[in-house]
Amino acid sequence: MRVFVTGGTGLIGSAVVSELLSAGHTVTALARSEVSAARAKAAGADVLRGGLADLDVLRSGAEQADGVIHLAFSNDFSSPEALAHGVAEEADALATLGEVLTGTDRPLVTVAGTPVAAGRPATEDDPLSAEGPVAGRSESVNRALALASQGVRSSAVRLPRTVHNQGDGGFAGMLTGIARRAGVAGYPGDGAQRWPAVHALDAAVLFRLALEKAPAGTSWHAVADEGDAVADIAAVIGRRLGLPVASVPQENFGPLGPIFATDQPASSAHTRSALGWQPSRPPLLSDLENLRA
Question: Quick check: 83 pLDDT over 70?
Answer without folding.
Answer: no
